[in-house]
Amino acid sequence: MFNLHGYGPIILAGTLTTIELSILTLVLSFILGLIGASAKLSRSGIARAVATVYTTIIRGVPDLVLMLLLFYSLQIWLNDFTDFLNLRQFNLSPFTAGVITLGFIYGAYFTETFRGAFLAVPRGQMEAARSFGMRPLLAFRRILFPQMMRYALPALANNWQVILKATAIVSLIGLSDIIKATQDAGKGTFETFYFSVVAAAVYLVLTTVSNGVLLMLTRRYAIGVRKAAL
Amino acid sequence: MIGIIHDYWRAYLYTDGYTMTGVAMTLWLLTAALVIGFCIALPLAIARNSRNPIVWVPVWIFVFVFTGTPLYAQLLIIYTGVYSLSIVQHTHFLNEFFRQGIDCTILAFGLNTGAYTTAIFAGAIRDTAFGEVEAARSLGMSNVTLYRRVIIPAALRRALPAYSNEVILMLHSTTLAFTATVPDILKIANDANAATYESFSAFGLAAILYLCISFTLIFLFRRAERHFLAFLRP
Fold first, then answer.
1. For domain B2-227, which architecture applies?
2. Residue B13 contacts residue B24 (beta carbons within 8 Å)
3. Residue A39 domain boundaries
4. Which residue numbers of A have CB closer than 8 Å to B's CBs?
């Protein structure tokens, strides 16, 4: 049953690419989400407007459309830019383009997640931190962030699963991820059905395993929170 | 930009002269998938809340598999995978069905959204207040009447906000249809891009059309929520 007709190493490499891509996308969209949420909650009207336009447009347009739009346009813009500065042409790899576009897209979803989570932390916590003389960054790192994470984790877990599944479309811009590897294997051996099921099975394992990890993280961040016994 | 609009506006909106394309095709895919999904989800959601493991375990597995794998992987199994099986190629009916990209696409989309909708509806049914069931029983309602008059109408109302999210996500997922040669909005944009190399305009137009559809759907669901969830308003 586990006879992969010699395509095992390629499929393994594809799986690793998918995991790498998902993790880098998660990191990028996490950072963009924190920036976006701070912008949405800031006192500056311009920052709020920019963040609102960003989340509204990104969440209203399908990820695949955005990915193709950015993948083709990024390269053209980059060429214009390097021509303008008389630099050598710099080619975006599908991997980089995938991370940038997926990170940019899911940054919008993270912005909404973090905005809700920031609002859920009681105001007095931040006031107390400031009254102890903590600088804003220190107060954010020690007070706001750890408490915010508890509220953000369930939505974060959901976003992670969505990102993991969204990486499947990156094979359409030429990245050799798990889908590409299994499709190539299927075409090479005429066992398309078997290999496309393998691809789905790999994803199922990845989502199930990460579900377990996220459950543990949720418990870790909920330490010290007492649940009402019903 | 103007050139693309001039040459392709008809294809973007409803037809390329031969078949239905663009917005019309996307809306057809969305509607077909949602109808199939709804018809699967309602009975499965009831089965999911059964106490008999022979009934709820298969439903759990269905939801687990279809929500745990990407829709693109499911589409590839149904579109390229199933057709390569010799039993499918040698059965007339199956051969005819799986040879059409659009049949495979609608089947895959319907099953996928059916799984997510099952999860949503099952959660809503589980949240039914105990007192409502108790009251219905005390009036002597049979199981069927109880579900038809009390549990299902209330559960569907409660599920509306989550269901509207799923509809928007399904709209976003219909873009995958172009990988199965179905001429939806993205396929037209891809063709326009290949013919003119004006990537930003070609895909930008598609993005604007999707944005309009998303906003219309969100508006309609807001209205629906105001109507069906009126009792929750403060």
1. Orthogonal Bundle (1.10)
2. yes
3. 8-221
4. 57, 60-66, 68-69, 72-73, 76, 165-169, 171-172, 179, 183, 186, 190-197, 199-200, 203-204, 207-208
pLDDT tens digit sequence for A174-204: 788 888 888 888 888 877 888 888 888 989 9
Which residue, chain included where needed, has tokens 């006192």? Answer: A43
CA distance B172 to A100: 19
Chain mean position to CA A1: 34
Residue located via tokens 């490499």 = A13
% helix / strand / coil in chain B, to the nearest 5? 85, 0, 15
pLDDT tens digits, residue range A70-86? 888 888 888 888 888 87
3-class secondary structure, B20: strand
Number of domain units in chain A: 1
8 Å CB contact between B230 and B221? no
Q: Which two tokens stand for residue A199?
A: 């691809």
For helices B53-68 and A192-221, angle between their N-to-C axes, nearest 10 degrees: 100
8 Å CB contact of A204 and B65:
yes
The answer to whether the beta carbons of residues B125 and B153 sit under 8 Å apart is: no
Task: Give the tokens for residue A190.
Answer: 């005429």
Q: b or e along A157-187 (b: 16 or more beta carbons within 10 Å of the residue's beta carbon)?
A: bebbbebbbbbbbbbbbebbbbbbbbbbbbe
* Structural domain contains residue A146: yes
Q: Which residue of B has its CA nearest to A191?
A: B84
- Provide the ipTM: 0.85
CATH, residue A175: 1.10.3720.10
Q: pLDDT per residue over B131-141, tens digit each?
A: 888 898 899 88
Chain B, window 121-140: residues with a beta carbon less than 8 angstroms from a chain A beta carbon? none
Query: Cα B177–A208–A106 angle (5° rounding)?
Result: 55
Residues 153-182 of B with CB under 8 A from A: 171-176, 179
Summarize pLDDT for B37-77 with one digit per residue, the tens. Answer: 999 999 999 999 888 888 899 999 999 999 989 999 999 88
Residues in CB range of B148: below 8 A, 6 or more apart: none
User: Does the beta-carbon distance from A69 to B179 stay under 8 Å?
Assistant: no
* Most A-contacting residue of B30, B60, B72 (CB-CB within 10 A), to test interface: B72
